[in-house]
Amino acid sequence: MRFFDSHCHIEDERAFGQDRDHMLERARKANVLCMMIAGITLERSRQAIALCETHEGLFASTGIHPHDSESCNGSIISALSSLARHPKVRAWGECGLDFNRMHSPMDVQEKWLEAQIDAALALRLPIIFHERDSKGRLLSMLRHMAPSGLSGVVHCFSGNLEEMKAYLDLGLHIGITGILTHRQRGESLRSMVRMLPDDGILIETDAPYLTPSPERNRHKRNEPAFVPSVLSTLAEVRKAAESDLAEIIFQNTCELFRVQPEEIPV
């Protein structure tokens, strides 16, 4: 089996600065051949690209996380757009709405999300969306701005069944994290993923966050080597063969991020 961690933050110096090479080696041994490093600020997007330049199988996105919307401005969007032309950049984001923690006001989040969607559409890049407790507002914005459909993924999906179907109808993928493996927190998600179409699924770690079971019994920090645990639970819930489902999801991810066969490490 081979795996593509469709969303991680391994450029994070605090989490991975001391053992990044060993972490990447563990990922390779677990057959995690490719990883998408999701940008969350201008500086972190630059760091993600720099990491991709020195390692095979790593790809990056550029974007502003909704938590950081209040510090965004037009110059930052322009700078991100310039970075997004780098050959290792295959998506825009992580961007979206987070009305749970409210690190930035709602109207500010919406303003800069709209600007980022416009930038991504102009560059013809798929978009990595963050959504938490927006109560349908993200869906409303997407339907208004891109009624003919989008390319991208709702990462770390945490919505309800109606929202899941609506995102799929818009042409988006659903990103599944280690939450799926958590006995209580993942209960509703396990019931929903049974209804996902094969071609609508991506799997991710969101490393260093959301460590799956059973690894979280031994490790506080998540890392890409643990993404096979997400796949294993997903296959069990869907009553699918792990090897078949792993390859379908690997191909889904390569197609979304336009990763060519020659770019995949062997």
Automatic annotation (TrEMBL):
Keyword list, A-Z: Hydrolase, Metal-binding
Protein name: TatD family hydrolase
GO molecular function (one): hydrolase activity
Pfam families listed in its UniProt record: TatD_DNase
PANTHER family (alphabetical): D-AMINOACYL-TRNA DEACYLASE
InterPro entries hit by this protein: Metal_Hydrolase, TatD-like, TatD/YcfH-like
Domain of life: Bacteria
Species: Desulfobotulus pelophilus
Keyword ATP-binding in annotation: no
